[in-house]
What we know:
Layout: H1 12-31, H2 39-73
Amino acid sequence: xxxxxxxxxxxxxxxxxxxxxxxxxxxxxxxxxxxxxxxxxxxxxxxxxxxxxxxxxxxxxxxxxxxxxxxxxxx
Length: 75
């Protein structure tokens, strides 16, 4: 029926806002419980990841050159 739209009831808005407020209060309380790593640890792990990515990139590039050369021998 027209006019029976229950999704836009005026009584639902404060409930929705209270839910959002409660959610963000919970987020704020949990945020303080996080144990953040030290800056030195973050820098070391970031450098480690960069080195690993570089090593694998070079490895794949070298394998590409090797296979390209081997396949070039086949005529």
